[in-house]
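BUG: 3D viewer hangs when loading the predicted structure for this chain

Environment: internal workstation, default settings.
Expected: structure renders.
Actual: progress bar stalls at 90%.

Input used:
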Amino acid sequence: MHNDLTRFEERGLAGLADGTAPGQTPLVTTEIEQFLIEKLLEQRLWNAPLLCEAVAERFHVTVGTRAMTNRLHRLGYRWKRARYSPTNTLDPEIIHEHTASIETLKRGHWTASSPWSISIRPDSV
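Structure tokens produced before the viewer hung:
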């Protein structure tokens, strides 16, 4: 409050206007933001490190992954984990064929009659 009064007394109304924020100017310009939006509209999965590489390649500007993540959040983008979703339904015969062996493995019963058992002959050692 004291600083505001002092600035007003020294410079009038112009002294009350906010100055520029201290610190480095942002590396991500509006041109780079437009580039990011275009890239994110592509049918491809992007993450912050990949976007940083694309920006460095195109604009020759090094942006850190944390700064990229913060910029994406400001642009309204959110990250979610990719989920497995098969495009085709699996063949029921294949599912039935492997269900028994998967259940055996889940129980931890590995027997010599298992299809994946390895036989070592004494003469091969």
